[in-house]
Design goal:
With 625 residues, this protein is α+β, with helices and mostly antiparallel strands. It contains 10 helices and 28 strands. The radius of gyration is 33 Å and the shape is elongated.
Length: 625
């Protein structure tokens, strides 16, 4: 074989190995891996978890703890209900009784709808607690006329009530002696808590419901610096003003999002409050605004604050005659619809062609938005409701990398399932919590959780479980820093925990790039380990265009380099390391220019090509020294 054929054979081998690399990721990815938007097989049973408290119950809030555990809070059978789960969806036995906690206020109807995780690991749960009807003095039977108050319960990290909060860990706040309920809670950096919801001021029609906020000190007492008595009520022009979400802005202002009823339809409503509880006149009109998104009824159920100060709300938009859709709208910091989001500041998403609506919204670190809610899936018998989740790009378009079209629906047992809250884990998995109906009876409603997303946190083609078995780093795509991802190494048969799998002095990535075999210390069977073999340099030089070698003088320079390498190879075969090193160092002298004006003694004038060859020569010198 002449020199030209030898080089052609080397390059053919290099191309074949590189082709293998291109297919490595798919070869290394097992079919069980959950892609973004797929149900996560590593969570619960088939990606779903159902928790029964012994009656009919539903989860209304979801918390993600830093240790990977999940907390769901809700109501059922007249009590606050809280459950904590391990990262795989099993109940956490160290919390409450077998992972579950039941909290009762007055022996009547209590229901949790919101929760927040505190800095010390405690859990604050908000909702409503019913007072006996006799307290109203109107003689209405308790089953009909019970009044409800804002209700908060603070739990220690083990699920026990925190006696340092309120009275024995519980507190209630009344506004007008009628029907008040917490829908959202947030914690300020100083530990004070803001609860928001709805207060009823009359039962005789007219304008009965208003936005209501209360701020509490760390011990649960009302904060008198917040509008004088710790409570604020805001009336819009509608007959029903229903607050559903709170967000805190960096300057301490709080924005409340919800809906107001105007005639026969609802509009999205926002209000912003300063640190003392007064409405912020620079926002909307007098601190308040309402927006009609679709020319018909639309509501806001949740809101998130973006890093640039903009606000995104999620809820429902009615499509007259055909049903409802998920609806998202983005507002500027001053309360104007942001025209750069969707079409004119808002987007809608249809799942079922019928009654769909978002109830929760979460912001991913990459700026994408995840909305979850309930979608109407009308099967022949019987009709049902399912969890629905959609992921959006920052501009409001659906993210088609999520389940192929940006949407996914989840059914638990063919019944009426309803999603209430959503969270995004640090590894990118999406968790949704709500109600899962197991049968047609009232007691068939349980806490339902579903998890979606990738089990490959670092995107290297291996699941986190596979990485644990291999001993690789699940959050580093290239555990051994050899230039190949862990998944590529598994496909190639190299060791993803050792940079130089065949111990020939050249790491696996370098071998693949130069056309040698990273699993064979002597790729060409010439008796010389790849780390001491000149083949990689020869192959690279043979592929250089004449322009890299000085144009007219290219042939002579190429011949000089090849001759020097042949002398090195002969010396290595003879075991004369000193001569081999001397020849390499002499060659290295002709590869040390690469400045603005190339050294006239350099044999490779193109800077990038010279650096590549120089690195290979330096590696040979290091391996032979």
């Amino acid at each position: 074989m002449d020199e030209r054929e030898r080089h052609r054979a080397r390059w053919s081998k290099r191309v074949a190995v590189l082709a293998l690399l291109l297919g490595a990721t798919s070869l290394a990815t097992p079919s069980a891996v959950a892609a973004p938007g797929d149900i996560d097989p590593d969570f619960g049973t088939g990606g779903k978890v159902v928790t029964d408290f012994g009656g009919g119950e539903s989860a209304g809030a979801l918390l993600l703890q830093p240790d990977g555990k999940l907390v769901a809070a809700g109501g059922g059978d007249g009590d606050f209900l809280v459950a904590r789960y391990n990262s795989d969806g099993t109940l956490d036995g160290s919390f409450g009784s077998g992972g579950k906690v039941v909290v009762d206020f007055f022996g009547d109807r209590d229901e949790a709808s919101s929760a927040v995780l505190l800095a010390d690991g405690k859990i604050l749960v908000g909702g409503s607690a019913a007072q006996p009807a006799d307290d109203l003095g109107i003689g209405v039977p308790p089953a009909v006329g019970d009044r409800t108050d804002f209700a908060l319960a603070r739990l220690n990290s083990d699920g026990s009530l925190d006696a340092s909060f309120g009275t024995g860990g519980l507190l209630v706040t009344d506004f007008f002696g009628l029907f008040d309920a917490v829908a959202a809670v947030l914690v300020q950096p100083d530990g004070r808590v803001v609860a928001g919801g709805t207060a009823t001021k009359t039962t005789s029609g007219g304008d009965p419901h208003d936005f209501a906020l209360a701020r509490y000190n760390v011990d649960g007492s009302l904060d008198g610096s917040f509008d004088g008595d710790g409570r604020v009520v805001t009336d819009f022009v509608g007959t029903q003003d229903l607050l559903s979400s709170l967000v805190r802005q960096p300057d301490g202002a709080v924005v409340a999002a919800g809906s107001v009823r105007l005639g026969d339809s609802f509009d999205v409503a926002l209000a912003r409050y300063g640190v003392t509880g007064s409405l912020d006149g620079s926002f909307g009109t007098g601190g308040r605004l309402t927006v009609d998104l679709a020319g018909s009824s639309n509501t806001a159920a949740d809101a998130v604050l973006l890093p640039d100060g903009k606000l995104v709300v999620a809820g429902r938009a009615e499509r007259p005659g055909t049903g409802d859709d998920f609806a998202l709208a983005r507002f500027t910091s001053t309360g104007m619809l942001d025209p750069s989001f969707g079409a004119g500041g808002w987007v809608t998403t249809d799942f079922s062609g019928n009654r769909d609506g978002a109830s929760a919204l979460a912001l991913q670190p990459d700026g994408k938005l995840v909305a979850s809610g309930t979608v109407g899936i009308f099967n022949p018998t019987p009709p049902g409701r399912n969890f629905g989740t959609a992921r959006y790009n920052a501009d409001g378009s659906l993210d088609v990398s999520f389940n192929g079209d940006g949407k996914i629906t989840t059914d638990f047992n063919g019944g009426f399932d309803s999603a209430a809250d959503v969270g995004v884990q640090p590894d990118g998995k999406v968790v949704v919590a709500g109600l899962a109906v197991q049968d047609s009876s009232t007691t068939g409603a349980d806490f339902g959780l579903a998890r979606y997303g990738t089990t490959d946190a670092d995107g290297d083609g291996l699941t986190d479980a596979q990485e644990a078995d291999l001993g690789t780093n699940p959050i580093a795509a290239d555990s051994d820093s050899d230039g190949l991802t862990d998944g590529q190494e598994v496909a190639l048969g190299t060791n993803p925990t050792v940079a130089d799998s065949d111990n020939d002095g050249v790491n696996d990535g370098q071998e693949l790039a130069s056309g040698t075999n990273p699993t064979d210390p002597d790729s060409d069977d010439d008796g010389i380990p790849d780390g001491s073999d000149v083949e990689a340099v020869q192959s690279t030089v043979s592929g250089l265009p004449d322009s890299s070698l000085g144009g007219p003088s290219a042939h002579g320079k190429r011949t000089a380099i090849t001759s020097a390498l042949d002398q090195v190879e002969a010396a290595v075969r003879d075991g004369d390391t000193a001569t081999a090193l001397s020849r390499l160092r002499s060659l290295r002298h002709h590869l040390d220019g690469c400045g603005t004006v190339a050294d006239r003694n350099d044999w490779v004038s193109d800077c990038s090509d010279q650096l590549e060859i120089r690195a290979l020569v330096d590696l040979l010198i290091a391996n032979l020294s």
